[in-house]
Amino acid sequence: MPKSYSISADSIAEETARVGGDLDQFDISRVIKLDDLELREMGPGDVHMRILAAAAEHNVDHAATADTVNIVEMRGGKTYPGNSAVGEVLAVGDSVTRFKPGDIVITHCNADPDEYGYPTRIWAYDAEDSIGWYGEEAVVGEWQLIPAPLDCGLNLWEIAALPLRAPTAYHLWRRGLGIYRLKVPREKRARLNVLGFGGGVSELFLMLANHEGHRAIFCSGSPDRRKHLESLGILTIDQKEFNRFASGDDVKAFHKAVRGMTDGDGANIVCDMLRGPVFGAGLRVMSRQGVNVSAGWQLDTQNNYNSALMSVRQLTLDHSHFDTIQGANAATKLYGSVFKPTVHREIYAFEDLPRAMEEMHKVMQTGIPIVRIAKEMPAAVADIIP
Ligand SMILES: NC(=O)c1ccc[n+]([C@@H]2O[C@H](COP(=O)([O-])OP(=O)(O)OC[C@H]3O[C@@H](n4cnc5c(N)ncnc54)[C@H](OP(=O)(O)O)[C@@H]3O)[C@@H](O)[C@H]2O)c1
Question: 167-319: which CATH number, 3.60.21.10, 3.90.180.10, 3.30.360.10, 3.40.50.2300?
Answer without folding.
Answer: 3.90.180.10
